[in-house]
Amino acid sequence: MRYSKYTIFLKVVELESFSKTADFYKYSQSAVTQIVKSLEAELQMTLLKRSHAGVCLTSDGEQLIPYIWELAMAEERMWEKAGEITGMDRGLIRIGVFSSIACHYLPGVMKEFRKLYPGIDFELHTGDYSKIEQWIAEGLVDFGFLIRPVRTDYDTIDIMTDEMLAVLPEKHPMTEKTEIPLKAFEDESVILLQEGGNQEIEEHFRKNKIAPHISYYSGDDYAVMSMVENELGIGILSELVMKRCDYHIVTRSLKPELHREIVIAVKNEKNASVAVKKFLQFVRKRENP
Known about the structure:
- By secondary structure, the chain is an alpha/beta fold.
- Among the domains are: 1-88, Winged helix-like DNA-binding domain superfamily/Winged helix DNA-binding domain (Arc Repressor Mutant, subunit A); 162-258, 3-Layer(aba) Sandwich (D-Maltodextrin-Binding Protein, domain 2).
- Helix content is 42%, strand content 27%.
- The protein has ten helices and eleven strands.
- It has helices at residues 5-15, 18-25, 29-43, 59-86, 99-104, 106-116, 129-138, 199-207, 221-229, 274-287; strands spanning 48-51, 54-57, 91-97, 120-126, 143-147, 155-169, 179-181, 190-193, 214-218, 234-238, 249-266.
- Strands 3, 4, 5, 6, 7, 8, 9, 10 and 11 form a nine-stranded mixed sheet that branches.
- The radius of gyration is 22 Å and the shape is globular.
- It starts with a helix and ends with a helix.
- The relative contact order is 0.14.
């Protein structure tokens, strides 16, 4: 895959690091540094501040970043069009994902898609719902996976309905129940994902006038599973993320039940690159045959 100097510069800004960017693209750090220096020389200005803490944009860089992003997208579309003309499909698709989709849904879809379009590569950005929505709005990803409701001005593709489940230690007394009432979360130590990754859960509590006894927050689904296994509390996780679970824990439906509607959200599908349009068409046919 050919990466332009603009794309590499944007990745340095995103990761705030030359070394992390070099690792991401499997380049040497000196090569990434030289690419940025050449861009600064071409523009006759300093775009990045360097320090031991990392790198960040200068005031000049902040003013130019929207134009650099437009150049990166235009160059990417040029190469995609050239590939389309020559019959060699190629391109790069940037996707915002949360962990359960990244682990248990997207790899299989990517595998199927690459059988048809082996020249199209993927770049995954993992974060919580709020981060992904921000990345879509700022154009840092081509599209992202979100939970309904989403902005009405976004194009969306329905992916799946995913049940949210109570997660209990194996020997917890409530494992004898088939459903766990929300009221129980007021009396138990509760472990939830950090804010930004649990908005549908907190809204479910508010809607049912439940004040859960939250003892721990975690930024990782699997950390929640481990904490529950070690009897630090009970949690709520999605059915999707519980696939291939090796922890000694038990899941039960909530009462009342809670489901999340997972969608792909695109800022403007009509303006998407050729590669992105091909992928979205592929997913749409796959999920809605």
